[in-house]
Task: structure prediction
Amino acid sequence: MRWLLILVIVTANAAGDLLNARGMKRQGEVRDFRLSGLARLVAALVHNRYVIGGVGIMGVAFLAQMWLLSITDLSFAIPATASGYIIETVLAHVVLGERISPLRWVGAALVAAGVALLAL
Amino acid sequence: MNGPRSSDPVTVPSVRPSLRRKSLLFALIAIVTNVSGNLLLSRGLRGLMPHHYWHVLANPWVDGGIAVLAMWLLTNLSLLSWADLSYVLPITSGGYALSAVSGFLALGEHVSTARWVGIVLITAGSIVVSRTTPRTTP
Result:
C-alpha cells in the first residue's frame, strides 16, 4: 500500500507542477500585487483549465501524503519525495522545453541528495 | 548580478536583473508560508478525528493553516508565472531544511549528523540553482 501511495504522490506532484507551470506561463507574468490585483488574478485563474487541474491534482497529492504519514513515518516518506526533484527537472525539460544548464543540474542533485539525507 | 553572466551557459539576453531579485523574494515568502502553514495545520489536527469535519473546520489553528497555505499557493503560482519550474522547485526546497532547523530550535529535537549534512546540501543546492537564469523559455 505504501509504495502505491508513494507512486501516487510523486506522479500527482509532478503532474500538478507541470500543469501549474504551463497554466501560469499562459496567464503571463504577475505584476500587480495589490489586494485588488490579486483578487483579479484569482478571478482569472478560476477560468484557467491548466491551473484548475494543477491545483486539483496537488490536492490529491496532499491527501495521499496525509494518508501515507498515517501508516508510516517520515523516514520512509521523505526519500521518495526526494526523487521528485530529479523526475520533475527531467519533465520540465522534456514537456515544458526548459533548458537545464549543468549548474542547474548540480543544484537539483544537491537538493535531492540533501532531502534524502533528512530521513537518516 | 548585473551585466553579462558568462559563467551561465543558458543566459537569455532578455532576462532582467530584477527578475532574479523578485524570484528570490517570492521563494523566501513561499518557504515561510509553506512551513508555517503546515505547522499550524498539524498543530490543529493533533488529537482531532479526521472524520469530524465540523470540529476540524471550527478549529482556529486549522483555519489559520488553511489561510497561510492559500497564501503559499498564490505565491508559488506567481513565481511560476515568470520563472522555470526547474528553477522554482529547488529554490523553494528550503522548507525541508527550515522544518528540521525549527524543530531543533523551538522544540529542542535531536538533529542527527546526517540530517545536518542534508540541511547543508539543500541550502547549497538552492543557492547554486538561484545563480542560474530564472527563465529559459520564451
In short: Chain B has one domain: 17-130.
